[in-house]
Design a protein that fits this description.
This protein is an alpha/beta fold and about 400 residues long. The chain has two domains: about 35-235, P-loop containing nucleotide triphosphate hydrolases (Rossmann fold); about 315-405, Winged helix-like DNA-binding domain superfamily/Winged helix DNA-binding domain (Arc Repressor Mutant, subunit A, Orthogonal Bundle), CATH 1.10.10.10. The protein has helices at about 5-10, 35-45, 60-70, 90-100, 105-125, 130-135, 140-155, 170-180, 185-200, 215-220, 240-250, 260-270, 275-285, 295-305, 315-325, 330-340, 350-355, 365-380, 395-405; strands at about 20, 25-30, 50-55, 75-80, 155, 160, 160-170, 205-210, 230-235, 255, 295, 350, 380-385, 390-395. The strands form five sheets. Strands 4-7-8-3-9 form a five-stranded parallel sheet, with helices on both faces. Helix 11 (about 240-250) packs parallel to helix 13 (about 275-285). The longest helix has 18 residues, at about 105-125. It is globular and about 70 Å long.
């Protein structure tokens, strides 16, 4: 068992590892995701593939790394690939092969065997070609089929080890296919992956990303490509977990939060994203002396500080997501809806939002509005009341940032 895995397993009850950087900062790896990890392993051990729905800044990539570290003890070989930035299927499978090849010991053997297999099948005497060259000259669907066949045939000692492919940002990749090649291209890719999952049962998959793949599939009538996958939402921390998380950070920085300060932090956020909890706690610790309590004024100041231009990169991905992943006129409509919803902490009613959509020359229907609201909810911007008649920003600080820098 690798050393990193031993460390993580030894602290499984509260596995938040802290790495102190050269500037004295604190970087967080995992905290109290034991239930989520256990649930996912139950699915994998029962041969289930998973679609993990996770808004941005919720800790999905951290959880993926945890799964990778735990995989050896669970009888799996796991590979992790982030496919954001890729725009064609061959690049997807090239990244998968590269990730497999990086696995110490077993990875090199798998890719070497795959290369020999492909040479025999497709290129005969051209034995000098490596797998990358063969992929470029081969239909990607055939290449993928042989790759997964090779993974299934891989053995370590006398025990078969199943493979687990953890794919981050697959929705971004699918959206890139849609934009570049159209609906048929994305349809063919997702359905081919489904066929591969059904054919190669010892290679399991987890899809996740900061855009909802389910929402993209629904908008483009390709949901059938995901019906064999178990849906697992990754939620923000519960209140008590968030309090323990903040206290853990403060303790390691040599200070502590008062109960009133904790209430302020949680109230200012309103949605307990591990990422933003960590950022506020770090700023609060920076603003108080070691050994001192963090009181309400410092906590409030720390929350306000996150809205300064100094920390704009903490929030920039929210605007960038809309700019990069939506085309006109949808992009303009999404920004208009968010601007209206940001005006009040209580948000805006569906009736008001429909009027905003209908101010131009091209009136929009309730169905169109519902599609936009579903998208913004799936992507982490909004939450709805139980009757779904009113929508508000899911995170209070994001609403404040949006009002200050975007809805102007």
């Amino acid at each position: 068992m690798r050393m990193a895995q031993q460390i993580c397993c030894a602290t499984a009850a509260l596995c938040y590892a802290l790495v102190v950087g050269w500037m004295g900062g604190v970087s967080m790896n995992c905290y109290d995701r034991d239930q989520e990890s256990d649930r996912l392993w139950r699915y994998f051990e029962n041969g289930k593939n998973v679609l993990m729905l996770a808004p941005r800044r919720i800790g999905k990539t951290i959880l993926l790394n945890r799964l990778k570290e735990e995989s050896e003890s669970k009888g799996f070989h796991a590979v992790l690939l982030d496919v954001q930035g890729y725009r064609e299927e061959k690049a997807f499978f090239s990244q998968l092969c590269a990730s497999i090849q990086e696995e110490v010991g077993i990875g090199q053997a798998v890719i070497s065997a795959l290369t020999d297999r492909l040479r025999r099948l497709f290129h005969g005497a051209e034995s000098q070609r490596d797998w990358r060259t063969i992929l470029l000259a081969t239909d990607w669907t055939e290449f993928a089929d042989h790759l997964l066949s090779q993974l299934e045939e891989t053995q370590e000692g006398e025990a078969n080890h199943r493979w687990l492919v953890l794919v981050d940002e697959i929705a971004v990749f699918t959206k890139a296919l849609l934009d570049a090649e159209g609906k048929q291209k994305a349809h063919d890719f997702l359905y081919k992956l489904r066929n591969l999952r059904q054919k190669h049962r010892n290679v399991l998959w987890l899809y996740t990303g900061s855009i909802g793949l389910d929402a993209i599939a629904r908008r483009n009538d390709i949901e059938g490509a995901l019906v064999d996958m178990e849906i697992v939402p990754l939620e923000p921390f519960a209140r008590e977990t968030a309090i323990g998380f903040l206290n853990n950070i403060a303790q390691r920085r040599g200070c502590s939060f008062t109960a009133e300060a904790l209430d302020i932090v949680l109230s200012r956020l309103g949605w307990f994203s591990p990422y933003y909890l960590e950022k506020i706690a770090e700023v609060a610790c920076d603003k108080t002396n070691e050994g001192r309590e963090i009181g309400p004024p410092v906590a409030d100041h720390a929350a306000n500080s996150l809205l300064d231009l100094t920390y704009r990169t903490y929030w920039a991905t929210w605007r960038e997501h809309l700019d990069k992943n939506f085309t006109e006129p949808d992009r303009t409509h999404l920004f208009a809806l968010l601007a209206a919803i940001a005006q009040s902490p209580d948000g805006a009613s569906v009736g008001t939002l429909l009027q905003i959509l209908n101010t131009g020359d091209n009136p929009r229907t309730s169905a169109t509005l519902n599609g936009f609201l579903d998208t913004l909810e799936c992507d982490g911007y909004l939450s709805a009341d139980p009757a779904r008649t009113r929508f508000r920003f899911r995170m209070n600080l994001l609403r404040e940032w949006w009002l200050r820098y975007v809805a102007v």
